[in-house]
Amino acid sequence: MANRTVSTAEAIHGTNPQFLIDKIFRERIYNSRYWKEHCFGLTVTGVMEKAVDLPAIGRETSSQRPMEFVCLLLKLLQLQPDRPMLDALIDQEDFKYLRALAIFYFRLTQPSLDIYMKLEPLYRDYRKLRTVEQGSVLITHVDELVNALLTENSVFLITLPHLTRRMLLEDAGEIAPRLSPLDEDEDEDEDEDTSSNGSSN
After folding, report:
1. Highest taxon of the source (predicted)?
2. For residue 181, how many other CB atoms are within 10 A of its CB?
3. Between 84 and 189, where is the model more confident?
4. Contacts (Cβ under 8 Å, ≥6 apart) of 25
5. Hey, which bits of 11-161 come out as E strands?
6. Which of 2-16, 79-93, 136-150 has the lowest mean pLDDT?
7. Average pLDDT, the chain
8. Strand 158-159 relative to strand 154-155: parallel, antiparallel, unpaired?
9. 65-87 average pLDDT score
10. What angle do CA 109, 115, 116 make, to 5 degrees?
11. What percent of the chain is modeled with pLDDT above 70?
12. DSSP 3-state assignment of 15?
């Protein structure tokens, strides 16, 4: 059935993965034309192919029709791709909307430490994303989506699972303090200066 989670899927945060999207909105997705015409029988590879061609990210259009982005997100929750596949979807740099879909799914389904480790490097991705919010089309960026996923309680009115505060993970020695991209750039410049000075002596 098109609306069932695969039988091999594991519970996420103690529940059926699909239930990470609230029931009312989930039913609206099931009843949407895009879901019925394009998501039936999709595999993870099929989701990838459709995500490449996404026109925008967001929850719903001005007519309150669920957008393709959330339809494919729900399909991924049904299919539960394995971690190596998920890493590959995030690490690829050619298709920004595919990456946006994958990092949203990652934030919904993965442990806190993994979320910080995987998503924080994407603060360096400044590519533009067409984003639909309350019927308006806005231009945001991949790094802004990452920041929202790491700091907000909900994105596109989808409640995000609890995320352990980064400071607690730092205090426990599970993750190193995060350097901002500016700090990292300064470190790289210092390394280059040191290297050039050494070669000139």
Report:
1. Eukaryota
2. 12
3. 84
4. 59, 66, 70, 157, 158
5. 57-58, 128-133, 136-141, 154-155, 158-159
6. 2-16
7. 88
8. antiparallel
9. 95
10. 165
11. 88
12. strand
Q: Which amino acid, one-letter code, is at 116?
A: Y
- What are all long-range contacts of 153-159, with beta carbons under 8 Å and residues at least 24 apart? 155/104, 156/57, 156/58, 156/59, 156/70, 157/25, 157/59, 158/20, 158/21, 158/22, 158/25, 158/59, 158/70, 158/108, 159/20, 159/22
| Residue listed under structure tokens 């997100």 | 73
What does pTM read for this prediction?
Answer: 0.86
Amino acid at 108: L
Q: What is the pLDDT of residues 128-169, one digit of tens each?
A: 999 998 778 999 999 999 999 999 999 999 999 999 999 999
Average pLDDT over residues 65-93: 95
Length of the chain in residues, anyone? 201
Look-up of token digits 């040191």: 194
Calpha distance 35→68 (Å, rounded): 8
Q: How far from 20 is each of 74, 78, 184, CA to CA, in Å?
A: 9, 11, 35
Q: How is 55-87 classified by DSSP, letter by letter?
A: --EESB-TT-PBPHHHHHHHHHHHH---HHHHH
Residue reference for tokens 């993994």: 114
Nearest to 73 by CA among 96, 45, 51, 41: 51
Does 118 have pLDDT greater than 60?
yes
- In angstroms, the CA 21 to CA 36 distance is 18
